From TrEMBL:
GO cellular component terms listed in the entry, alphabetical order: periplasmic space
Family: Belongs to the bacterial solute-binding protein SsuA/TauA family.
Protein name: ABC transporter substrate-binding protein
Primary localisation category: periplasm
InterPro entries listed in its UniProt record: SsuA/THI5
Keywords attached to this entry: Signal
Amino acid sequence: MKKWCKAGVVILLLCVLVIPLGACGNKEQETTKVRVAEVTRSLFYTPQYVAIEKGFFKDEGLSIDLKTTAGGDKTMTTLLSDGADIALVGSETSIYVQAQGSNDPVINFAQLTQTDGTFLVSREKIDNFNWDMLKNSTFLGQRKGGMPQMAGEFVLKKHNIDPKKDLNLIQNIDFANVATAFASGTGDFVQLFEPTASVFEKEGKGYIVASFGTESGHLPYTVYMAKESYLKEDKETVEKFTRALKKAQDWVQENDAAEIAEVIQPYFEDTNLETMETVINRYKEQGSFAADPVLDEEEWNNLQNIMDEAGELPTRISHEELVNTDFAEEVTK
């Protein structure tokens, strides 16, 4: 009887010791919520969706709350009003904010794309396109002062086309409605992001004739940015965020378009896998996806040159003033 009692005590003690250890082992990792506002939903931002779907953010202990805020002005307003912690938008917006004066500057800390992401789409099929065909046409452009419009005008001028004199230029249509306007019959040519451009081509609504990305050179086209105060107060979170992004960038560089398309399809339910594969491959081939998150000074200066050419640069701002490469360089080592 005593032996059974002793055995019972031993078992009881083991249970007391083991159960808490097991409970600790099953405890879920605590996560930090990061609110991200993206300027639009596009395959141009493929590495971002890969980082979410492949669990790279989760591995860093981050929970991403992603929302689409159509247009650079709305995205920046969301960030400035504390509706988001991080914004994915064109770097030009940070320059506009700084030029107006800010006690808490918006700092670019990780680059996602390094070329323009738009394509020139013609209403009619053109077998042997040349840029002179745009002269005297009605061109449906992007919002004035936005990166797509400025990069577009830079490329047009590069081909000796004055957007104001040689085209019937329409650019007073809201960013989110440009594609709809073209589909309803407005314009002979339009500047569109993917996957809309390829979808239009498959549906016979338009035909891709040129890429603005291959023509405009490297620039910090779409970048993750945050208030300077956030970068200081949540330094560890920003580093984890940037590390997850770098893992996704590496994964996109190492895998083919078909596999990438399958991973991120949940973000593009209305686009078939074949179209997604075509678009992703097109962006990969023209080097649109940045291989790492470092925004270097040469790209920053090219951005401001394009803004200046478009007459939209309020003041030239140094790379060190609005760009923080510490996080990107740390995770790229």
